[in-house]
Design goal:
BirA Bifunctional Protein, domain 2, elongated, 36% helix, three-stranded antiparallel β-sheet, alpha+beta, 2 domains, single chain, eight-stranded mixed β-sheet, 21% strand
Length: 373
């Protein structure tokens, strides 16, 4: 069936003036915060090669829009910004001093099932910190995200942090079956916490399972991580130390009250290599930002580099920002046809003074007059 004249493709949206003003205001505030922390803006093309950026992306191939280019190569609409920026860093920016601090505002594109509310075009604003390993960089990203959310007057929010290696170590210590560990991990990826806990309770080491279930309740003080420092798994101990050091740095910022550790929080297990984070705010049922450490991505572009970053999901962030963007006052300048030149000159003068001016012919007037609305 042919689409109606007013229809648009499923998953895409129009942005009317009021919403556009709020989006631009939020982007402006984010740009100011990012720049003040030493991050520089970059832009990448909307189209990328599936063979390079597509393979490196954390987004699964079945979520990518594909098309054939003139040279018969398979192209994709960029599904995320991290992989295109990695390509840029290892080409145009390969001689720049490290670490690199970069930020962006852009749309990314992902195919969606035919379900209400699913977006195929997602607005993102984010940062990438490239070339600096360790907890100092991870803590900087968390503090930067909190500062940015404050600047956007976001409703009550929290950052929830997990750690890929902490979870792996804990599961390996109580679950010898690789198949069961994969199933537990899959439950968490799909946010099926009921299934995760049910399978955990089937394991033999009931005491260890009870300890993990207690950790699953969410940790809002770093002291709750300290028992993990005596764990039998070196992987668990190392990850716990990293999270405690991150917490220490956030205390120096005065930001520790915004932080919760949840060992169940998991992103793409084959992509993230350490800390993983998501941000949540009142009034929005989905995460308003996500990100983490991904130290393996740059190897795919021929130059191994540690990296960490996050992206705001602008569609969700807009809903929870308490920013009132007033419609600018408009001055209408009425003039008779014979005074058009003088009216144009007057409109230029008023615009230079900061007015929003609309010209309107009105032959009932004998002179130029203007009215603020």
């Amino acid at each position: 069936m042919s689409p109606e004249a007013f229809e648009k493709p499923i998953g895409f949206q129009d942005v009317p003036p009021k919403l556009a003003r709020k989006k631009r205001e939020i982007e402006s505030r984010l740009s100011h915060v990012f720049s003040s922390w030493g991050y520089q803006e970059v832009m990448t093309p909307m189209l990328e090669y599936a063979e390079t950026v597509g393979r490196a992306s954390a987004i699964s191939e079945d979520k990518m829009f594909r098309l054939i280019g003139q040279e018969r190569a398979m192209l994709i609409l960029r599904p995320d910004q991290t992989a295109p920026i990695a390509r840029m860093v290892n080409s145009l920016l390969q001689h720049e001093a490290l670490p690199l601090r970069l930020f962006y505002h852009a749309s990314v594109f992902r195919t969606q099932e035919y379900a209400a509310g699913r977006r195929a075009e997602l607005y993102q604003s984010g940062v990438e910190l490239i070339g600096e390993p360790g907890v100092k960089a991870d803590a900087e990203l968390l503090a930067l995200a909190i500062t940015a959310l404050q600047a956007c007057q976001t409703s009550s929010f929290r950052l929830v942090v997990g750690h890929v290696e902490l979870l792996r170590g804990l599961l390996e210590s109580i679950c010898p079956s690789e198949e069961q560990r994969a199933q537990l991990t899959d439950f968490l990826i799909h946010r099926d916490y009921v299934g995760f806990e049910a399978l955990l309770q089937q394991l033999e080491d009931k005491e260890a399972v009870a300890d993990i279930l207690q950790l699953c309740r969410g940790l809002d003080h770093k002291e709750y991580l300290e028992p993990l420092l005596s764990h039998s798994s070196n992987r668990v101990v190392k990850a716990a130390k990293q999270l405690i050091r991150i917490w220490d740095i956030l205390e120096d910022y005065g930001y520790e009250s915004y932080l919760t550790v949840d060992i169940r929080l998991l992103g793409n297990i084959n992509y993230y290599t350490g800390m993983y984070l998501e941000g949540f705010a009142d009034g929005v049922g989905f995460a308003i930002l996500s990100g983490g450490r991904y130290d393996q991505l740059y190897e795919q572009f021929g130059r191994p580099l540690p990296a960490t970053g996050f992206a705001f999901r602008m569609n969700n962030l807009i809903e929870t920002c308490n920013i009132e963007c007033m419609e600018p006052k408009k001055t209408t300048l009425f003039y008779p046809k014979l005074q058009r030149k003088a009216a144009i000159a007057k409109s230029k003068e008023l615009r230079e003074l900061g007015y929003t001016v609309v010209l309107q012919i009105d032959d009932t007037q004998t002179d130029i007059v203007w009215r603020e609305e």
